[in-house]
């Protein structure tokens, strides 16, 4: 893109930067550039604004501060607030609203993922419990006991009818049917026990997702307190995350009230 084309593009975007200014910037005859010019030039060039300051991919190191040379990507992290510059203490950096807002964004995304994970786990558990409720396990166990008792009775009758081949044939046929039914019922009971184990696993998945979500919400609410302490605005949250936070705060207040009530009773 030529200097004139770049100037025309800037004008199209609503901000005039004459071709002569662009040429002076390229030739370093002009050594200063405003924030507005950086933003409009980056939009015209379709690149992130910070890469005009720190040309990543073209230089191994850049001067971030006088006497401090770092890799371009490291300089970008410093400039964007993603990391603490060498001259800034960690304590100061971690208390700045830039870090707090970035932390809020990460926590919000994490909480959103945990909400989705818990919803999927709860849905899977509900479907499984519906399937489990349709299994007539008590009836099957009772029938299995009855089949086994009848099988033992037929065995006894077979011994008694050793001298009567005709009666033995009928008893053996009946015993075969009982064995088939016993196998069917045994398989159903075994499946039920297997499903009980799966049910425990699904319950654990719901509980694990709930615990992870609670941790994320606790950290989010604590972060709000830190923002309030420095007079910064709280970032907005919408949708399911707002509902989850409101439910969490309601539960926290209820638990706090219960704890205060227990303390009063002890006194």
Notes on the protein architecture:
With 267 residues, the protein is mainly alpha-helical. A hairpin with a 2-residue loop joins β1 and β2. α1 (3-12) packs across α2. Helix content is 76%, strand content 3%.
Principal-axis shape: elongated
Q: Bin the strand percentage.
A: under 5%
Number of structural domains: 2
* Order of strands across the main sheet: 1-2
- CATH architecture grouping of the largest domain: Orthogonal Bundle
Output the helix-strand order: HHHHEEHHHHHH
- Report the count of strand segments: 2
Q: Can you tell me the residue ranges where pLDDT is under 50 for at least 5 consecutive residues?
A: none
Given this structure, which CATH class of the largest domain is correct?
A: Mainly Alpha
Helix content: over 70%
Largest sheet: 2 strands, antiparallel
Tally of separate helices:
10
Which class best fits the helix and strand makeup? mainly alpha
Radius of gyration: 37 Å
CATH topology of the largest domain: Helix Hairpins
